[in-house]
Amino acid sequence: MRFLILLALALGAAACGQRGPLYLRDNPPAGVKPEKRDTYKPVPYPPSATEEAK
What we know:
mainly alpha; 2 helices; 33% helix
């Protein structure tokens, strides 16, 4: 019984700063436009060892 009370208090304290429902970035609620991030740019391979020997 004591465990359930402590669990309820811990969950209540964890939600103190929450405002509104949470949502995933890929599926925002209507009227919310997530910021656009830079597109991924792959890192090029380093030059091969044969080019360094030349």
